[in-house]
Design a protein that fits this description.
Layout: H1 8-18, H2 21-32, E1 35-36, H3 37-42, H4 48-60, E2 64-69, E3 72-77, H5 79-108
Antiparallel strand pairs: 1-3, 2-3
Helix pairs in contact: 1-4, 2-4
Length: 116
């Protein structure tokens, strides 16, 4: 049984945010160290505004936290949200493994001379 720690809308926001390669890279960069949006924007061949929009999507999904420090907006990863998403995927994996084990048991219990 999958125990949801996240609401359906939270799950949707997290996986929609992570569906984009740039956003996944921003998460990775923010996990390595907190960075300003300006620093992040220098890494990508897109406008500052486009990077800001990616950060906003990640922030809405609670995958990053953005704080204002003086004139800069500092982005840091939110590992708890990532852990919650990982636990959800692990729960789905458990279901899949259980089903695979049941199929294995059924196949191993086939009488000799019969085909599954």
């Amino acid at each position: 049984m999958v125990v949801y720690e996240l609401s359906e809308s939270e799950i949707d926001r997290i996986f929609q945010a992570m569906a984009d390669a740039t956003r996944r890279d921003i998460i990775k960069q923010a996990m390595l160290r907190e960075q300003s949006v300006s620093e992040l924007a220098r890494r990508y061949a897109m406008s500052f505004a486009a990077v800001q929009k990616h950060v906003a999507v990640l922030e809405r999904a609670s995958l990053v936290i953005k704080q204002r420090r003086g004139r800069e907006q500092i982005v840091q990863a939110n590992p708890e949200s990532l852990r919650r998403a990982a636990r959800l995927l692990e729960a789905y994996e458990d279901i899949w493994r259980e089903r695979a084990n049941l199929i294995g048991e059924i196949l191993s219990n086939q009488p000799e001379g019969t085909e599954p």
